[in-house]
Amino acid sequence: MGTKASRQKMIQKIIEKDEIGTQFELAERLKQHGFNVTQATVSRDIKEIGLIKIPVEGNFSKYSMPVNISVGNIAERMRRMFIDNAVSIDNAENLVVIKTLPGTAQGLAACLDQCGWQELVGCIAGDDTILIIIKEKMLVNGIISRFEALMN
């Protein structure tokens, strides 16, 4: 079994070459390359590398490397992603939920993680839903207003 760095380098090679849509597929492919991994290890590697899922033909999504973006264009990328992918925004206490088109939540959440807004503690993304934790309940309305401005 190789080192973590060599395993993560192999993950990058695999997803660049093939359309890998699940952690199971990725674990199986790593095993074919001599890395004896569990799904939990693959999950941690995906998070550490910062892989996102992007939609591809046939209502399918695949893992992809995040686009290298500079601080200057994060806001523009986030605006485009909100316009193209966000469906609705709701909240409860200090939690904000953004519904997106299927397969696009992780990409939008990655933008939110990179935007540097101090009010955001963090995001958890599924396939079409993002849960955003806001530091304080009193900041939620301002954050929602900023999100809504991005959608228009």
Inertia-based shape = elongated
> N- to C-terminal separation?
50 Å
Number of helices: 6
Strand count, sense and barrel status of the largest sheet are: 4 strands, antiparallel
Q: How are the strands of the biggest sheet laid out side by side? A: 3-4-6-5
Helix content: 40-55%
* Averaged pLDDT: 87
List segments where confidence is low: pLDDT < 50 over at least 5 consecutive residues.
none
Radius of gyration: 17 Å
Strand content: 15-25%
Total DSSP E strands: 6
Order of helices and strands: HHHEEHEEHEEH
Kindly name the structural category: alpha+beta
What can you tell me about this protein's structure?
- With 152 residues, the protein is α+β, with helices and mostly antiparallel strands.
- It contains six helices and six strands, in the order H-H-H-E-E-H-E-E-H-E-E-H.
- It has helices at residues 4-17, 23-32, 39-49, 71-85, 105-114, 140-151, and strands at residues 52-56, 60-64, 86-92, 95-100, 120-125, 129-134.
- A four-stranded antiparallel sheet has the order 3-4-6-5. Strands 1-2 form a two-stranded antiparallel sheet.
- A hairpin with a 2-residue loop joins strand 3 (86-92) and strand 4 (95-100).
- The N and C termini lie far apart (50 Å).
- The model has no long low-confidence stretch (mean pLDDT 87).
